[in-house]
Specification:
By secondary structure, the protein is of the alpha+beta class. It folds into 2 domains: about 5-40 and about 115-180 and about 280-324, 3-Layer(bba) Sandwich (FAD/NAD(P)-binding domain), CATH 3.50.50.60; about 45-110 and about 180-275, Polyamine Oxidase, Chain A, domain 2 (Alpha-Beta Complex). The protein is built from 10 helices and 18 strands. The strands form 5 sheets. The chain has a 6-stranded mixed sheet with strand order 7-2-1-11-18-17. A 5-stranded antiparallel sheet has the order 13-14-15-12-16. The N and C termini lie close together (about 10 Å).
C-alpha cells in the first residue's frame, strides 16, 4: 500500500506534533514554513552585544499542563531533560507547574523536530487543487501532495484558502473568519548589571501596560542579564502603527519607571497574532470539499496556548492514522 503524500504548512507546535505522531508507514510528510527556523511563537534567539552573549525567549514564555495527553508528553520531555519546572506561580504559588525549555522555548521544537522533513524560508503564496492532489506555490519551489494541513493563525489560513481558484466560499468558514487575535509588542533589553527581580525572575499580568516581564538570566537560559517585556494588548494596539523608534522609546521609558532598571540596548518584535480572542470547539477542522483532503489545525482548536497547539496536532494525527 503506497504512502499518502502530506504537506503541513507551519512548523510550530501543532505542525511538529502532527508530523511526529503520524504513522511513517502510511504518510510521506513534508513541512513548509516561511520562517528561518521551527517554533512559531515558541521563539528564542541568541545575540552578542559588546562581546557578551545574551539568550532570550521573546514569544511564549512557559506552558502549563491540564490534560493527560499533554501531561504524558511533558513527562517524557522531562526525562530527556528537554524541559523542566520553572516555578509554581510568579507572584503566588497556585500549585500548577510552569514549564520551560531548558535552553529557550524554540530549542524544544528543535529537538522534537529532529529527523522530520522540513523546508524553511518557504512561504506558501498560492494553493491549487486538481481532482486528487494539491499543488502549492512557495517562495523557492512548487510542492505537490494528496493531503494538506494548514496550521497557521486563522487569518493567514483564510488568505491562503482564497488563493485556490476553485475555492468554494461556503458557510463552513464563517466561524473561522470571525476569529480575532490579540496583538503583542515584545521589548527585549540587554543589561549591563543585574536586574532587581525576585526569583523566579518574572511577573505576569501586572497592569494595563504589561502582560509579562522576565529576566532571562534568572530564568536560566541566558549567561548575561537580558529582559523580555510583553506589552499588554491595549498598549500594543495603541502603539502598533507608530514609528518603531518611537515605540521602543515609549516602552523603554515605561519599563524603566516600572522596575527601576537601566537597559543598555533594546529591540522590538511585533506579534500580530499573539493569541486568539476566542477558541473553537474540537481539535481540528476537516473541510468537506476537496475529497476530504484538507484540514485546518492549531492552538485555537485545542484550547489556546502551547498545550492547545499540542492537542490539536496530537488528535489530528490520531484521526488521520485511523482514516488512512
Amino acid at each position: 500500500m503506497s504512502k499518502k503524500r502530506l504537506i503541513i504548512i507551519g512548523s510550530g507546535m501543532t505542525g511538529i506534533t502532527l508530523a511526529s505522531n503520524l504513522d511513517p508507514e502510511k504518510f510521506e510528510i513534508q513541512i513548509l514554513d516561511k520562517g528561518r527556523g521551527v517554533g512559531g511563537r515558541m521563539a528564542s534567539k541568541t545575540i552578542f552585544v559588546d562581546n557578551k552573549e545574551f539568550r532570550y525567549d521573546y514569544g511564549a514564555q512557559f506552558f502549563t499542563v491540564r490534560s493527560k495527553e499533554f501531561g504524558d508528553q511533558v513527562s517524557e520531555w522531562e526525562m530527556k531533560k528537554l524541559v523542566k519546572v520553572w516555578c509554581n506561580g510568579f507572584e503566588n504559588n497556585d500549585g500548577h507547574n510552569r514549564y520551560m525549555s531548558t535552553n529557550g522555548m524554540r530549542d524544544l521544537l528543535g529537538n522534537i523536530s529532529s529527523g522530520l522533513k522540513i523546508q524553511q524560508n518557504q512561504k506558501v503564496a498560492k494553493i491549487e487543487y486538481f481532482d486528487d492532489y494539491w499543488r502549492l506555490g512557495a517562495s523557492r519551489a512548487n510542492f505537490e501532495s494528496e493531503l494538506l494541513v494548514i496550521t497557521t493563525p486563522l487569518p493567514q489560513c483564510v488568505e491562503l484558502l482564497k488563493t485556490i481558484p476553485t475555492f468554494d466560499h461556503h458557510d463552513s468558514l464563517d466561524e473561522i473568519k470571525k476569529i480575532e487575535y490579540k496583538k503583542c509588542i515584545a521589548l527585549i533589553m540587554t543589561m549591563g548589571s543585574e536586574s532587581n527581580f525576585d526569583p523566579p525572575g518574572a511577573y505576569q499580568m501586572m497592569d494595563q501596560d504589561w502582560d509579562f516581564v522576565s529576566d532571562n538570566k534568572i530564568k536560566g537560559i541566558s549567561p548575561n542579564t537580558c529582559v523580555t517585556a510583553h506589552a499588554s494588548n491595549a498598549l500594543s494596539e495603541r502603539l502598533w502603527n507608530d514609528d518603531e523608534a518611537k515605540i521602543k522609546d515609549q516602552l523603554v521609558d515605561k519599563i524603566k519607571n516600572r522596575f527601576n532598571i537601566k537597559p543598555e540596548h533594546s529591540f522590538l518584535h511585533k506579534w500580530l497574532y499573539a493569541q486568539s480572542k476566542k477558541n473553537l470547539e474540537g481539535y481540528f477542522k476537516k473541510m468537506n470539499s476537496y475529497n476530504n483532503s484538507l484540514f485546518i489545525a492549531g492552538e485555537v482548536f485545542g484550547g489556546s496556548k502551547i498545550e492547545g497547539a499540542y492537542l490539536s496536532g496530537y488528535h489530528l494525527a490520531k484521526y488521520m492514522n485511523n482514516q488512512y
